[in-house]
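pinned: reference chain
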Amino acid sequence: MGAAAALTGLGLRNAQAARGHHAHGKAAAAEAEAADATPAATLVGPLPTPARWAYVLDHTTGTVLLDKAGNEHMPPSSLTKMMTAYVVFTFLAAGKLHLDQMLPVSDRAWRTQGSKSFVPQGGNASVSDLIQGMIIQSGNDACIVLAEGIAGSEERFVALMNEAARRIGLTGSHFMNCTGLPAPDHYMTARDVAVLAGRLVHDFPQYYHFFGEKEFTFNGIKQGNRNVLVDKGLADGLKTGHTDAGGFGLCASSERPNADGDRNRVIVVINGTSSSNQRAREGERLLSWAFANFETVTFFHKGQVVEAAAPVWMGTHRTIPLLASEPVSMTVPAGWRDKTRVTVDYYSPLIAPIQAGQPCGTVSIWFNGKLTRQVPLVAGASVERLGLLGRTLARLGHAPA
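pinned: its structure tokens
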């Protein structure tokens, strides 16, 4: 509790220091100061943050650690490029695109404004170089080349982005372009950015390394990763963004060992900070706060025996082991393990026939007396139903061992 209080005080000082230093005029400063006045909600109490939008997620257990306007529409700026990358990676994983494939640079792509990778006018660039240009250099021109190369036009590519967003559960997002340049009806939520980051980690581990590269040289021009947390080795991804409307934003992800010897991943999303320095400081502070103030408690690993001998009726075996179908774990404030408990529920006896992997019950996790998560229990082996003679003997209490 002392660590949380100290970090809360630090957050308050940061928030107060940030006031009056916004870069986009008095109106933007007033709006940002009003946003500062509302602290983020966390599992350990309110936490001040200068970010207008903030969301911190323990990706390993799906626990929301911090939320400030996490479901409010916001201009995502170049955080949009994470969605662009998701679609590109989908095509790569399906074999419809290849990293060494060369794509033509259209005049429209070459003329795209904002941050650039400086793709060659009228030339070609490999998919691998374009991905690095998009992610590391935040090149809008690289995004357009990828979009046109995959879908024929940016408009058709954006349709793929919106379709993929719906498929993976981004309920508060809508895209009008693949770059994040300001456009009406182009928005995301901080929650959706965090969900998208988790999907990039989970769905495309073979391509996730692009987000952690610290610099990239293309067309003779070297540019560093704008994500300072990546540059400092505190995070292995993902992206930053900036527009006047959205302020300075960041999505950072880091995986570290927990007290149980496993590893858990935290995803931090902030947007609407006043400068790149404030963005970096607040991103680092919230990432450190998450790891310092919470711990992941693992009760059972996936496939671990939860119940060794669940009774079976009318089966060729009298008992069967029941296994956890997925990790049974949760994230709690540090030092609060004693407030958690686990209960196991299943029908007893189980009725044969039973197939291995068949759901047979649940493991429930309780925190502070409230049910927080349930994980299915599955049969650890198959059991056939007894024949007529066996069933008769079973009814008489003489079933086979």
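why pinned: Residues 1-35 have pLDDT under 50 and may be disordered. Residues 158 and 281 are 33 Å apart (CA to CA).
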